[in-house]
Fold:
Amino acid sequence: MAGLDIELEGAVKAMEASFHVRLIGTFAPDLVWAPANVEAAPWLGENNPDFDQFPVKHGGGTVGILLRAGDHSGKTVREAMQPLREGLIVSADIPIADLIPLLRENHYRLVLRGGRIDGLVTQSDLLKLPVRLVVFALITHLEQVMVDVVSVRWPNDSWFTELSQGRQSKITKKESELRGRGMNPPRIELTEFSDKRDLCMQLMDSSKSRFEAELDSLRDLRDQIAHASTFVDRSDGKTGVVAFVDRFESAKRWIDELTKLAAKSKATR
Structure:
C-alpha cells in the first residue's frame, strides 16, 4: 500500500474511533420522556407531534420506549410501550460507522451513557453533519483503494492508454493547465471516479455489472454529500434509509474486495 493510502486508512480509522453516537443522539435535558403511568393516547396527542419515539421513564430509570404509531386507546404508556430488550440499546461510545447498519431495519436505539440510559438516536439523525463526514471519508477511502489497484496493475501511468480517447484528451488538457500554474500532480489524481471504476472493472473476474451499478450509486452519494444535498430520502420512509444503509455497506464491501485484489496483484508482480 502506498504511503498516501496508509495515511488515508489511518485517518479513516481515527475518524471512526472519534465519531461516536454521542455526536448525533439526543440526550437529557433535550430529550422528551413519556411518563409511564399516564394514558398513552391523550399524552401523545398533547406532546411533540413531530416526534415518533419517546423513552419511557418510571421513577429514576428508563423502562422502555413509546412509539407514536399504533392504537394506544385505553392503555397507559407502560402498557403501550416497547419494553427494554436486547438489541434496543447502544453505547454512546459506539462508532457512527457501526450504528448505521443497526438502523437499517429499526428506526431507533436508546443510548446508554455513563451507566444510564439517557439518550435516543433515530434514523433522522443519519442526516446530521458527523454522519456526512463519516460516509464521505468512507467513499474517499474507496476511491483511494481504487487508485492503489490501478497503480499496481498498470505501473508508470500505463493505465492511461486503457481510457477512451475522449478521457485521455481531457486529462491531458487538465495536466497542461496545472503545469502552466506550476503544479505537477501525479496523473492518476487527474482521473475521475468513473475512470478508476472502469479500470478496476477490467480486473474483476465476476460481478462486473454489480460493481459498475454500485460504484455509480456511491459516486452519486458522494456528490450529494459534497454539495450538502439530502442523501437519505426520509420522504421515502423506511425504504430510503434501507437504500442508504445498503450503499454504505456496499462501500465497505468493495473496499475489502479491492484491497484483496491489490494485494493479489502485488504478490504476482
The two ends are 14 Å apart (CA to CA). The chain has two domains: 25-127, 129-267.
